[in-house]
């Protein structure tokens, strides 16, 4: 499920569209495997039909709650970097989105625990001007590259919106004190 392009402005384009790292799916896949194993075991041991239905029903509930739902959350969570902003979007039935304009990004930092370094993911913290302050993005795949890309986007945005000496608009003339007295 790609990020919907209709929320972008006319000159805006997606640079990175990320989901949380696949490690978030380890527990759901484990639950799925255990649920299937439980049903197969119940069938192989030729248990009473009612007991097989109970095991299959519990397995179905476990798969729906602990496998399918986390997969939906994982698929509908987007970390998007564009040439104008950082978009953080979550939600399956309802949707929450936070937009951080690149011009408001004050600082960004990444951290990785040992196991995250082995798996190639980490946490990216984006500090922005405004009342919300920091946004912590967990389980970012290839977090080092994402942080570098964010740095490049922020610098390009600052360069595009800053003036050099020749481009700076002229300051309006200040009225002199003689003109003010009249």
From TrEMBL:
Any one Pfam family match given in the protein's UniProt record, by short name: bPH_2
Q: Alphabetically list the UniProt keywords.
A: Membrane, Transmembrane, Transmembrane helix
InterPro entries in alphabetical order: YdbS-like_PH
Transmembrane ranges, per UniProt, are 25-45, 50-72
Quick check: keyword Membrane in the entry?
Answer: yes
The residue ranges of the YdbS-like PH domain are 74-149
Q: Where is this region: Disordered?
A: 160-182
Presence of the UniProt keyword Transmembrane helix in the record: yes
Can you name this protein? Membrane protein
